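Lab channel / #folding
Pinned by the channel admin:
"Please post every new chain as: sequence first, then the structure tokens as a reply. Keep commentary short and put observations after the output so the thread stays searchable."

First post following the new format, from NK:
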Amino acid sequence: MLNEASFQYAIENTQVILAPQRRIETFGSTNFRFYIVTELMDSVNQVRVRDGRLHAEKPLIIAPNHLERMMLEGFGEKAEQFMEWLQRNSGHLAVLKYGFQFRKTDVTESIVNSSIEEVIDRLKETVDYSEDPLSAIIQGVDEGWEVSLLKFASDMIQESSGGNMGDFRRRGLL
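Reply from TO:
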């Protein structure tokens, strides 16, 4: 189990080398292919490559009254006042809920005896050749590779949310 310092280290040392060309779909699920590249600790020119899939469910609109039920449990009077404000101003509020499923069964891993730069270059060629617009290459930390994957998922949500909101507005759902 990662301690807080290791967790923070993994977040700070995650870098998306090649981002997907497409965002999370608004009205359907999205299936990203990821390659996470990590250097093995205490080993020279040994790199672990994890190849797998990250499944994003379609985003859902959360209405302010549902948001209140989700947020108020265990909170006091100030939270209730804030929720009342949200309800009065609900025309200006829209929250999207994103769901991810990560199936470890989809993950394979291999050790490559090469520099991390060479491994990344070969993976870029592989992704270019496959022409898969939903592929990503992520450089992370070996022990905290799942944290690196979750950081990637979080970044994809941030990058997708504006377009998803626009799609909902164009369809008259917001």
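NK: Strands lie at 15-18, 30-39, 46-62, 95-102, 108-113, 135-141.
TO: also worth noting, The first helix runs from residue 4 to 12.
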